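Example record used in the benchmark description.
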Amino acid sequence: MSRTKLSDQNQSDPTHATSISRPQFSIASTERDTGIPKETLRVWERRYGFPAPGRNAQDDRFYSLEDLEKLRLVKRLIAAGHRPGKILQRDLAELIEFAPSTNSLPSEDVRQALELLTTDQLDTFAAFLSKILTRDGLRSFVLDTGRALSAAVGEAWARDELRIHQEHYFTEVMAGLMRTAIGATRTEGRRPRVMLTTFPLEHHTLGLLMAEAMFVISGCDCVSLGAQTPIPEIVLAADAHQADLIALSFSSMQTASRVTKGLKELRDLASSQVEIWAGGHADRLLNFKSPGIRVIRDLEKIPEAIEVWRRSPHPP
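Model output (structure tokens):
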């Protein structure tokens, strides 16, 4: 995600319709700037009345700079746990009041890491997290530091105390440390063989990496496809890699319809012998129930679920 740069030169960019006094942004440009999928923008418009874009001569949607600022804040608040229906119809001043306080920071390690990040002491930040990982081990790093720091970063983002480049750096450092630790922890895997990925338009991968770490700690043989794998390709890959489980991660930005339809489509296409496990922060997972799909929202429950799987009969 990157902030949109405003300049007179953008007038020649077909994704922007800018003027000196009131810059306007196409839906594609708004998606790139805010990280909110176009489908979600349209759903919010229809369901909640915001955003309420204008229309150009070709009847294409366009958004104002004020819309983008509010959408950025809305995304931060959703990441911090607020529901879209509770915040989208409020004005910007009210939304700022929803920004969480720093009192919820859980530990001195997290407070210090967040301070290093927000003050651009980036090399020190990376070294500090590496030290915590070495000291505590992968399991504790994921369940304690990783989850708490991710929440703290989300809260700082909601308070507009974190810049985009700092959030990106946080993601890259965390991902790099976890990938290295997963590689070092991985042993000769045993069943179940777990294939991990996300659906298309799901860009967030930290949750997927944290889940992979917990599967590896549980002695699973893991194959990660990374993010945004088309559903038919997930099915083909599961067959090619002889996966026992398909593990999927969903962020809070995923729409209910995308979660529901995607999981049901995957269940219909995948072999009945392959289990589908879903986790993450998408609201739709809270009460989601469908035959052949297991929802595990808490990372610490993965090892227990794996032991239950191993005690159950499965084809050789």
